[in-house]
Task: inverse folding
């Protein structure tokens, strides 16, 4: 048992979240694009595209790019 030890070290290392209300119009637009791409990807998968289909992989790559762009701009 680890009594007296701090157990929330990971929580302290995580960046503080920024309220969506304080996002710039650019970040709000990126968030909307990400949500739309995610929904489109889900629908494509539900229509029978397998995880390895070229269309789904292409959509996943676009989504990854937008998420990385969002995180980059949010943290700067």
Result:
């Amino acid at each position: 048992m680890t009594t007296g030890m701090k157990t929330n070290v990971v929580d302290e290392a995580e960046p503080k979240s920024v309220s969506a209300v304080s996002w710039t119009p650019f970040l709000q637009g990126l968030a909307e694009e990400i949500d739309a791409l995610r929904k489109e990807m889900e629908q494509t998968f539900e229509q029978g595209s397998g995880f390895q289909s070229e269309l789904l992989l292409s959509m996943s790559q676009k989504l990854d790019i937008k998420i990385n762009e969002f995180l980059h701009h949010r943290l700067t």
Observations:
- Residues 23-75 form one domain.
